[in-house]
Amino acid sequence: MRIPGTVIPETDGRSNAQFLNGIFAATSSLMLSQIREMTGLDASALQNWVKRGWVSPPQNRRYNVDQVARILIINMLREALQHEKIAFLLSYVNGSVMDRSDDIIPESKLYEYICTVAEEYRGKDVTDSERLRAAIEKVTADYVETTEGASQRLRKALEIIIIAGRSIQVKRRADRLLDEIYS
After folding, report:
1. Angle of CA points 94, 61, 75, to nearest 5°
2. pTM for this one?
3. What is the pLDDT of residue 182?
């Protein structure tokens, strides 16, 4: 298993939710080359995401924690969802990528929630909607609504993200099994 949205293997005993905090404890921003190394994406893909308005432009060629979190979320979901649907989902949560005033949650906190729910829900039946929603409720219990209905939007988006992430794992497993009998 890898840390969501990265090519970095998980570390036993460490929570993936603290991944970004660990990186940004030493620096306030990352260069494109560092993000490329972390995600396995090429520069043109990242620049295209900025050009399309899926990620806000870097400041002085550097990306802050929320921009990196958004990149990781997009990268994590791109095997399961079309880019336009990912962009819609993220705007459903936080409105315009260029306007921070309409955000209901910083993308870094959203990424932390994603990692925490994914860790808590690992190995459980993703089709058990009640159990997934209960896990999401538990993880987001500390969330303070900034606008009416924000909690509901956040939790619905998290449910979609977790199910999409799990669908990627299932597809990869099916591909491995198929490769075993195909070769």
Report:
1. 45
2. 0.92
3. 83
Task: Please give the helix or strand (H or E) that residue 174 lies within, else none.
Answer: helix 150-182
Residue 25 φ/ψ, nearest 5 degrees: -70, -30
Cα 183 from Cα 179, distance rounded (Å): 6
List the structure tokens of 26: 């030493």
- The whole-angstrom separation of Cα 30 and Cα 178 is 39
Residue type, 113: Y
User: Residue 103: CB partners within 8 Å, gap ≥ 6?
Assistant: 93, 94, 95, 146
Q: What is the pLDDT of residues 130-182, one digit of tens each?
A: 999 999 999 999 999 989 999 999 999 999 999 999 888 888 889 999 999 98
Long-range contacts of 149-155, Cβ-Cβ distance < 8 Å, separation of 24 or more: 150/104, 150/105, 153/92, 153/93, 153/104, 154/93, 154/104, 154/105, 154/110, 154/113
pLDDT at 93: 96
How many angstroms separate the CA atoms of 122 and 116, rounded?
Answer: 10
Q: How far apart are CA 1 and CA 176, in angstroms?
A: 15
User: What is the CA angle 12-13-16, rounded to 5?
Assistant: 85
pLDDT value of position 136: 96
